[in-house]
Amino acid sequence: MWKWKKGNKRSGEDDAGGSAGAPPWKRQAVDSSSEDNPDGIVVCEVSKNKRISVRNWNGNVMVDFREFFVKEGKQLPTKKGISLSMDQWKILRDHIEEIDEAVKEYSA
């Protein structure tokens, strides 16, 4: 199994997001209302700590299903979630009826 070694960097990484060699998910959390996510639109809150939002990330529109946690009064995203590109979102959207039918079969 691959292990992260102190001081290792993946290709193209820099120290701007946190301490040297820290994996991306261990770097300082970013508040969802910060300037890194100015176009984020919360579409709905599924539960207290889960929400679906649409945001612009690296010039790409993403549909983001994400879990959040509260730290120092701010809601911050966790790594628990999934971001769908527009192509992936369109595939999911086109299969919603089939998914709904499968859910009905299991919940009956």
TrEMBL record:
Q: Where is this region: Disordered?
A: 1-40
Q: Which residue ranges does the record assign to the Transcriptional coactivator p15 (PC4) C-terminal domain?
A: 44-95
GO cellular component terms attached to this protein's record:
nucleus
Q: Where in the cell is it found?
A: Nucleus
GO process terms (BP): positive regulation of transcription initiation by RNA polymerase II
- State the Gene Ontology terms under molecular function: DNA binding; transcription coactivator activity
The secretion signal range is: none
Q: Which UniProt keywords are listed?
A: DNA-binding, Nucleus, Transcription, Transcription regulation
Which is a Pfam family this sequence falls into?
A: PC4
> Where on the tree of life does the source sit, at the highest rank?
Eukaryota
The record's section on InterPro entries has: PC4_C (IPR003173), ssDNA-bd_transcriptional_reg (IPR009044), Sub1/Tcp4-like (IPR045125)
Q: What is its main location?
A: nucleus
Question: Is this entry keyworded DNA-binding?
Answer: yes
Q: Which family does it belong to?
A: Belongs to the transcriptional coactivator PC4 family.
How is this protein named in the record? Transcriptional coactivator p15 (PC4) C-terminal domain-containing protein
Source species: Rhynchospora tenuis
Taxonomic lineage per UniProt?
A: Eukaryota, Viridiplantae, Streptophyta, Embryophyta, Tracheophyta
